[in-house]
Amino acid sequence: MAERHDLVRFDWAMKKMLRNKANYGILEGFIEVFLGKKCKIVELLESEGNQEDYADKFNRVDIKAKDSDGELFLVEIQTTRYTSYLQRVLYGVSKAITEQIEKGDSYGKIKQVFSISVVYYDLGHGKDYFYEAKTDFVGVHEHDVLQLSEREEMSVEQIARGDERKYRMEAKTASDIFPKYYLIRINAYRKVVADAMDEWMRFLKDNSIKEDTKVPGLVEAKERLRISSMSKEERLGYERHLDAVDQEKDVAKSYMEEGMKKGKIEIARNMKEEGMSIEMIAKLTGLTREEIEKM
User: Distances from the Cα of 38 to the Cαs of 84, 100, 136, in angstroms?
Assistant: First the structure.
């Protein structure tokens, strides 16, 4: 089946093109497919990804979007390995929560935050490519999920507006209030394209979209994210971005290889002190005879 391949990478689209209101439908489709949640993005809020200076790292792009219900969506793409990545995700969500209210405000003003991380390296160990984390209070003895009462955690504003019925429909358990985390591991995707999520994964991994796609977000992406539609200046910026991403990966790989070699050298040194033969040390560590003899 024919596919369109002349499309920009999703990280570049987030960095430059999805910040245009005319392209919000791409982000809305992405959220609908992966979260199963239809939303209407009304604005993008200030985030680290908006910073356009030297410190703006090429290996990470993020968007902080607000929908018509006031809920927040943090979408982040990480292309190279990052130490304590999940802790940073936690920090970002915590910050997004605390920034919603000021001193003296009712806690009922806090809207739910959805964190979506798209990582292009092998984060953790697992068989799946898509993971979800949510909070529920589960009985230690009865194993039941604690349900909210009809007016639990309602804000003064909601009560005054008579929004109780709407609230009861939307917030039934703690997971409807607490943040939800979604982790998309691109390198772990191996499936044949079979459904909407597979089509999105194919786009995230290979920048390709089926010509006859009906998937939310990809219909718009197929038309709006064409490289051929870029101006000369935009294309040069995109090419610089691709070069920078490759450079970041090379640097990260070099650091990893250097660290692994240092570890091998330390092991080999200990083996040599224990009297093990150079031949055996070389076989076990992969170091050359010359490298071992210099120790």
Answer: 31, 22, 22
